[in-house]
């Protein structure tokens, strides 16, 4: 056991001792207390020896700590130099990239305009072709509609003839035949 634990046990024995009536004295177990004191007598020299050893090693520990601190500072300075160097390289690379980017952007813009002109020309040609095709389709539809109007007109005449009771297959009659009260024309 260490010294601190032994003192804690001794205190617990004294605090837990039975009090004497009408007095600040207490009844304690002599053997138990003497046992704890004996253990303390054995533990104190080893504790002081540990303390003396730590105290003796103190200078070595401090020297090692200073050495480690110096190594850390040296490593940090090297890292700082590396980062500064990388920063300079980065700045130089960025400057070079910016210098190259401007002509590339100009070339890309010229290519875009050239491509737009080409596409516009091709679309204009396509528009002309489509317009001609649309005109041909419109004329063809007009012809078909004209023919359809004549067919519809013929159907209307047949319907009117049927309503009037005229036989469409019979030979045509003269206007006088259609109007019996009209005078005959000399012909």
Using brief descriptors, characterize the structure shown.
187 residues; 3 helices; two-stranded antiparallel sheet; single chain; mainly alpha; 2 strands
Ordered list of secondary-structure elements with their pairings:
Blueprint (H helix, E strand, L loop, with lengths): L2 H13 L2 E2 L6 E2 L2 H135 L10 H4 L9
Antiparallel strand pairs: 1-2
Helix pairs in contact: 1-2
Strand content: under 5%
* Tertiary shape: elongated
Low-pLDDT ranges: none
Rounded mean pLDDT is: 81
The H-and-E topology, N to C, reads as HEEHH
Number of strands: 2
User: How far apart lie the N and C ends?
Assistant: 160 Å
Main sheet specs? 2 strands, antiparallel
Structure characterization notes:
It contains three helices and two strands; from the N terminus they run H-E-E-H-H. A two-stranded antiparallel sheet has the order 1-2. Helix 1 (3-15) packs across helix 2 (30-164). The chain has one domain (3-145). It is mainly α and 187 residues long. 81% of the residues lie in helices and 2% in strands. The longest helix has 135 residues, at 30-164.
